Amino acid sequence: MELKLDQWATTPPAGYPGPISPPTGKRSAGFANGEEPPAGYFNHAWDALSDMQNELANLITGAGLTRVESDLAQVLKAIDVLIGRAQLKTALTTVRVIYDTAIGPQTLKALARAPGDTGKAIAVGTEATIQANSGPNTSFAAQTAGAPFTGDFTDITYDPTLGLFIAVGQAGEIQTSTGNGTWTRRASGGARFRKVLTNGLGLCVATGEGNVIKYSTNGTTWNTTTGPFESQWHTGLVFGEGVFVTVTDGGSIASSSDGVTWIPRRSDGGASGAGEVIYDPALGFIFGGNPEHDVYRSADGITWTQIHDQCAIYQSGLFGSPYGWLVMLWSAAGTSVTARYSATAVDAPADFIVDYVTTEQLMWMKFIYGQLWALGGTKIYLGGVL
After folding, report:
1. What is the DSSP string of 112-172?
2. Closest CA to 342 of 293, 295, 381, 272
3. Residue 54, SS3 per DSSP
4. Residue 295: C-alpha distances to residues 260, 283, 300, 330 (Å)
5. Which of 25, 136, 262, 376 is a Cys-bridge partner for 362, taking CB atoms 3.0 to 4.6 Å apart?
6. So what's the pLDDT on residue 294?
7. What does CATH list as the number for 88-385?
8. 159 near 204, Cβ under 8 Å?
9. What residues of the chain score a pLDDT lower than 50?
């Protein structure tokens, strides 16, 4: 019969071999060389170590590793992934409204934020809507777009090197601001822009409909170049590993290191849809979109490998985090949102699912400097921090 103790006790249970606890003075001072602790003390210590080993084994198994292949580095990585999964779930489940702009019928479309604890956040939307806060507070106020623009803004980004917010919209509109409340028109006319992004070092790219791409090295002077896919619309844009990657509604992919010359990496004239591309330093690039599209992955934005056949789950929203892939599924009305998370394969069963029900159309989410921001109708939402 094996007897082990769950905690320190002063009286051993029936059948327990010998003393179970060191003398009171030895519990804090320890034992000198040559002294022998009670045998039961070793049993208790061994019991605690055994419990810890079992807990680590459960963590390893939960992270998809086997005990045979789990060296210390793998154990630490597994624990990190599990902690990260918990952080990610917290970031999602704590999404809450922090401000209602009450600007209806206008709707918010995108938000950008400057880095740092006091970084300003600015959201843009339809009918030239601009809403900005004054740093870490949750109160936003309206700003006026540079005249005579009254159309819809579709996206916004921030470049820390230039210290500029850059917003794009209908009819080739590009406007910039340092965040001081004054907006200046930099370009207008032509097809609608859908995305704008910088490399963080002053190189800016705007993409959209009609295969038109604009680029700038200072945010104020913009030049026009042509994408490689004729009349396809550019629906997704990311930067990583030193290259910009744009994807189209037809399932095509192109990359550029300077924003000027775009090299096709995959061409597809398939059915139109909402092609999306994401990048995360821990995961690389992934492209998906319309249910008719296959899913592709790349480590460098240049060489792409198909990892899944036509995958309908990518028709709504796709996000990357240091801990795994995140798929957002919006209802047709946008009032119900489901987040599906998997730390391993993009087509794996979800590790967890988070549901949202909102009174607005929650149609935009993005991790900005590790914090989850969301927009829905007239409301601005904020989640947890990774």
Report:
1. EE-SSTT--EEEEETTTEEEE-SSSSS--EEEBPSTT--S-EEEEEEETTTTEEEEEEGGG
2. 295
3. helix
4. 26, 14, 16, 19
5. 376
6. 73
7. 2.130.10.10
8. yes
9. 1-8, 271, 313-315
**What are the Cα distances from residue 110, in Å, to 1, 3, 166, 174, 381?**
67, 63, 11, 14, 12
Please state the pTM of the whole predicted model: 0.79
Cα–Cα dist 316/193, whole Å: 20
Tell me the β-bridge partners of 340: 327, 353
Type of residue numbered 138: T
Distance from C-alpha of 340 to C-alpha of 330, rounded to nearest angstrom: 11
What is the number of other CB atoms lying within 10 angstroms of the CB of residue 41?
Answer: 20
Tokens of 315: 């028709």
How far is CA 235 from each of CA 170, 290, 319, rounded to the nearest angstrom?
A: 14, 11, 15
Calpha distance 57→131 (Å, rounded):
50
How far apart CA 238 and CA 247 sit, in angstroms, is 9
* CA-wise closest residue to 3 among 33, 44, 56, 36: 44
Structure tokens at 95: 């999404």
> Over the stretch 111-161, which tens digit does the pLDDT of each residue have?
999 998 778 999 999 999 999 998 878 899 999 999 999 999 999 999 999
Closest CA to 292 of 274, 277, 278: 274
213 in Cβ contact with 227 (< 8 Å): yes
**Residue 188, Cβ density class (10 Å: 0-12 exposed, 13-18 middle, ≥19 buried):** middle
